Amino acid sequence: MLPAIVGLMVFRLIPIGWSFALSFTSWRIFDDIEWVGLSNYAHILTSPVSREVLGNTLWFTAMYVPGVMIVSVTLAVLLNNSLRSSAFFRGAFFLPYITATVAVTLAWRWIFSTRFGLLNHLLGGIGLDGVPWLADPAWALPAVAIVSVWKDAGFYMILLIAGLQTIDPGYYEAARVDGARPFRRFYAITLPLLSRSLFFVLILALVRSTQTFEITYALTNGGPNRASTTLAFYIYQNAFVHFELGYASALAYILCFAIGLITLLNFYLRRRWVHE
């Protein structure tokens, strides 16, 4: 077990402890480390830029989590059958998740193009004006959320299909005999018996929503005017662009605390809607 323990210490535990210590300092790599106490945390809570970034993160979460839950549940229900074509479509919807993020964002940058993009072309075809998706601060973050939902929904779909296949078909047969319509069967049978899988997917989606980085970096680079800068991307900027490692470490622990708080809250609310 020694190699695994050494790897855990060197690449996990020591960096976690070192970054926690750095969060109480001011350090720009080539300068001396200066102890500043809680100043970094106080600056995060009082800085207009930090508040804007935290607001962007919450707004992204509010778009990403419901979007990916609705899309993945819909796909899972539609593809949970024994048809041969379902295997193809499962693979097709899962493919974006394993496709390189740079390749995905290059394709979506063309789709979102203001003048030549496919999306604006479709909007023009139904009589609507095109949208400057990546140049307008009001649309940049929704564009990142759209790409993130498109890329990740297939992964959550696979998890939910696995949960659906554990439901006894006898429940549906009995409901059909009783005259229950498809929506009633979905609401009264599928959702309650799928609640444990939904809870697991919800936790993963919430954590993922606070850690989005690659798509933001490749699609908008946090712009325009920080409109799509979320907390994970802001940590990267401070650590590896501005070299403010102490401040970036404090931001990372704010993110860690937020994820932990959200997870604990969901586990507390779990007993109210998850059916064992």
Describe it:
This protein has 276 residues and is mainly alpha-helical. It has a single domain, classed as MetI-like fold, CATH 1.10.3720.10. Helix content is 75%, strand content 1%. The chain has 13 helices and 2 strands. It has helices spanning 2-22, 39-46, 48-79, 84-98, 101-111, 118-125, 137-164, 169-177, 182-193, 195-210, 214-219, 231-241, 245-273; strands spanning 25-26, 34-35. Strands 1-2 form a two-stranded antiparallel ribbon. A hairpin with a 7-residue loop joins strand 1 and strand 2 (34-35). Helix 2 packs across helix 3, helix 3 (48-79) runs parallel beside helix 7 and helix 10 packs antiparallel against helix 13. The longest helix has 32 residues, at 48-79. It is globular. The two termini are 36 Å apart. The mean pLDDT is 92.
Secondary-structure map:
Layout (H helix, E strand, L loop, with lengths): L1 H21 L2 E2 L7 E2 L3 H8 L1 H32 L4 H15 L2 H11 L6 H8 L11 H28 L4 H9 L4 H12 L1 H16 L3 H6 L11 H11 L3 H29 L3
Antiparallel strand pairs: 1-2
Helix pairs in contact: 1-13, 2-3, 3-7, 3-10, 4-7, 7-10, 10-13, 12-13
CATH class: Mainly Alpha
This entry's quaternary arrangement is single chain
Specify the structural class: mainly alpha
Bin the strand percentage.
under 5%
Uncertain spans: none
Tally of individual helices:
13
Tell me the major beta sheet. 2 strands, antiparallel
**For this structure, what is the CATH homologous superfamily?**
MetI-like
Count of beta strands: 2
Helix and strand pattern: HEEHHHHHHHHHHHH
Shape: globular
End-to-end separation in angstroms reads 36 Å
- Helix content percent band: over 70%
CATH topology: MetI-like fold
**So, CATH architecture?**
Orthogonal Bundle
| Number of individual domains | 1
Rounded mean pLDDT is: 92
- Largest sheet, spatial ordering of strands: 1-2
